[in-house]
Each structure stands twice: as structure tokens, then as C-alpha cells.
């Protein structure tokens, strides 16, 4: 039962990150809530960087899904744990940019915490 929960949660995270990435690449305004001051529609440079973030998110989610599909639970847990570094740095970027704390803590740091918990579940399977 724990294996089903762990793999289901990991798969949902992977699919969500792929979906966010695809949406962000096609419509960078999707990332308006990322937490960096400014709006993508008004700033072509920010718009470009958010498109880059979309590509990174898509690739990260795809790597996680490959690890889940082809690797052991330990491999999937390791990839999940390594990937948790990305939302930590995203949150730190928002803090450094003096963006809203709700984005840094409520979105990025909480995402990293969930990923660490799911990684732990995968290690336990």
C-alpha cells in the first residue's frame, strides 16, 4: 500500500511539473505568481526568462517520470530528493528579489518540503 501511495504522489508531482513547464513555455504569463516583481506581459526580458523556466520545469518533470517508470524506488526517491533543490532555489530567488513571502514560503519552500516527504516515502518502499 505504501508503494502505491509513494509512486502515485511522485507521479502526480512529475506530471504537474511537466504540465507547468509546457504551460510556461507556451504562455510565460502562467508564471506571474512565481514571485519575482513585474509582470511578463510588460517585461520582455522577464517573459524570456520565464520561458526558460518552463523548459527547465518540463525537463525536470520528465526526468522524474523516467526515474519512476524505469528505476527502483530508491532511484526515484533520489531523483525526487535532488529535484527538491530547484524549488528551494526558486524560493531563495524570490526572497532575494524582495518578492512576496507567500510565493517563497507558500509555493516554493512548501513544494520542496512535499518533495522531500515523497522522496522519503520512496526510500521506505
Structure, explained:
With 125 residues, this protein is an all-alpha fold. The chain has a domain at 2-18 and 55-124. Helix content is 79%, strand content 0%. The protein has helices spanning 2-26, 44-70, 73-83, 85-96, 101-124. Helix 1 runs antiparallel to helix 5 (101-124) and helix 2 (44-70) runs antiparallel to helix 3 (73-83). It is elongated. The mean pLDDT is 93. It comes from Glycomyces niveus. InterPro entries: DUF4267.
Task: Tag the structure with descriptive keywords.
single chain; 125 residues; mainly alpha; 5 helices; 79% helix; elongated
Short characterization:
This protein is mostly helical and 125 residues long. 79% of the residues lie in helices and 0% in strands. This is DUF4267 domain-containing protein.
Task: Work out the strand percent.
Answer: under 5%
Which bin fits the share of residues in helices?
Answer: over 70%
The helix count comes to: 5
* Overall 3D form: elongated
In whole angstroms, how far apart are the ends?
9 Å
Largest sheet: none
The radius of gyration computed from the alpha-carbon positions, rounded to a whole number of angstroms, is 15 Å
Order of SSEs, N→C? HHHHH
- Average residue-wise pLDDT: 93
Element layout with pairings:
Layout: H1 2-26, H2 44-70, H3 73-83, H4 85-96, H5 101-124
Helix pairs in contact: 1-2, 1-5, 2-3, 3-5, 4-5
